[in-house]
Each structure stands twice: as structure tokens, then as C-alpha cells.
Amino acid sequence: MITSSLTEIAANGEYEEIGGRNVLRTAGDTQEEYRALREGAMFYDCSAYGLFTLRGEGADRFLEKLATKDIQYLNEGNVSECYFLNEEAEIVGSVFILRREDSFVVIAPWEHADPVEKWMKEKSGEEAVEIEQMSDTAAITIEGPESWRAVQELFSADITGIGLRSSDIITWEGEDITVIRVGRTSEYGYVIMASVEKAKEIYRLMREGEWDFPVKEGGLDALELAMLEVHQPNFIRETEEFGDIFELAQQWYIQYDKEDYTGWERLMEKFSNGVKKGAVGFSAAADSELPAGCEVTDGTDTIGRVVYGRYSYKLEKFLGIAVLDNPYAEAGLKLTAKGTNGDEEINTLSGPFIRPLSWDMKME
């Protein structure tokens, strides 16, 4: 199992294996981690992500053939959030692609790191491209409405000019640190990439610093809840077992006017055929136990399944995603889920289920 290069300084909390990688579930208090993410800033170790540098004169053409968004016109310092698909239009990986002056950086989260690496190497063929793991680099993500302020204070640098899906290089203690404005929760978010030694120092400073707002080291439990509350695709839970890209409402990273990437023809075929089921959010009583795969009915017939769910500290309810047959994949319906403790009433919802504070806050 792959562990992070920051393991020695990370929290001694609860861990889970995700995609062959050791991932922190909680540093000890998920509710406080979640509060920091929603009201201040939560930082988490991403060094077990797949971090790859692609070089060579054919690197842009190579990525253009794999990515579901245009890469060849990506400006230096900008980032594309896109998919790599296989020939059946199934997701190989959800990735961030950063263009640098003479190379590209591909970042794949825990669950997709190994498949993305294998796919790139399999598809590289005769292309003039070198694919290298960034083993000397560590990555830390910080998300939340005050995350921009935390990064700014940490590096004593103005980062308000870094736009969404853009990056900047900040020189800090003699090293060039890459700060990328991306995240997974719809709050302000930044990925910080640095040498392992500098990343350890950054991690300690975030943990031990004196802040005017909540700043906590966090894990996957708080992250998944925040993603669920805005129905951000969660590829750990929302898998092909429950549906395809369109049925799971995962088409966020598809550029429809782009052609000729792997999986495009099959994807367009699925799009033309339409969908017979769809993903929708739902709420239920706070003490509900609705495991993945449990049936949803209209009171008589089975019309779908629960994909996954979590207790929401803000809503004080159980919140989840279900895939339902049409025409039931709509908000405002009362249905029944067959949970661990028997039948539970669920209410379908429109997203986002919670509005992130970052949507209404300006950096100043």
C-alpha cells in the first residue's frame, strides 16, 4: 500500500485504503474538521495522490488525445479539470492538468492515481512524451471560505489574483512553491505543491499556527460530506455499478464541442440514446441507516437504489444520493428506502443541498 511522504507528521487518526493508498479518514473529530471546512479552512494531505510530470514535444498532443477538454490551447499556469475515458466512455480518471512552461503536471486523486498512471503509459506508445512520477514532491490541499486567507498569511504573499483553475509560483524560504486554485467541495480551495521537506514545514505551520478562524487538519469523512452537500462527483462512492457518466450526473468535465479523444464516439452514442435513470439528492431522518445499494421504492415498485449517504451536521438530517428510474429522478418527491432498520421515508432534493459560504464571500 502506498503511503504519503508526509505520513510521519500527519495525524495519528483513522485511515482507510483507497485505490491502494493509505488515506486519513479523520484526524479525530470529524465534526470539527467539517466546521473548519465550512467556516474557516481544512487542510489535508494529498501526497498519496498521483502526481506526474509529462515532458516532450508530443506531450500536448498526447494529452489532447486523452482529455475530455482542450489541452493544446491551455495557457501556461492554467489548469484543466477533465476526465480520461476508456473506449467504452467509462471514467479511467478525473484529473487536474496544469500547463507549465516546458511540461505538464497531471494530478489524479487517490482513487484514480493508479488507473491514470497505467492508462497514460499504455497509451503513450510511440508518442514523444516522458511520464515521470513526482516522487520528490508533496501536495497539500486547503479548502474553506477562509482558505485563501490562510494561504496568504502562511506565505506572506497576495494570492487574491490567482483565478479559479489557475496557478502561481511563490518563492518561500528559498524554494519556488506552486499554488493552484482548485478544490473538491465548491469552497475556495488551493493545492500547494512543494518539496517533501518544505511541505512538512508548511503542514506543521498550518497545524500549529494561531488563526483568527477555525483551521483544522482533516480527512476523507469531512471532505466527502462537503462534496455530497453540493453534489460534487465522488468517484469513490459513485461508481459504474450504479450508472454511467450521464446517469450519475458526472458530465461536469465533458467539453461537448471537442472530438477525437479516447471514448468520444461511445460517449456521444450514450448521449444520443438518452438516459433512463438519473442521480438525485435526498434527505431522511437523522438516525436513518441507508447503506449503498439499498432499494428505493415508490411504495409499491422498486425504482432505484441508494448510492451513498452521510449525516449532515448542518442540515441535522441524513443526506444522500440515489439513482432512480425516470421520471422519479426529480426533486420534491416522497419515496421509501429499504434501510438497515426497515422502511425509511426519503425526500428528493435539488442541489446544491447546502450553499457554500465561499459563493457569497469576496477576497479582500
Automatic annotation (TrEMBL):
Keywords: Transferase. InterPro entries: GcvT/YgfZ/DmdA (IPR028896), GcvT/YgfZ_C (IPR029043), GCVT_N (IPR006222), TrmE/GcvT-like (IPR027266). Coiled coil: none annotated. GO terms for molecular function: transferase activity. The keyword Transferase applies. Residues 30-258 form the GCVT N-terminal domain. Pfam families: GCV_T. The keyword Transferase applies. PANTHER family: AMINOMETHYLTRANSFERASE, AMINOMETHYLTRANSFERASE, MITOCHONDRIAL. This is Aminomethyl transferase family protein.
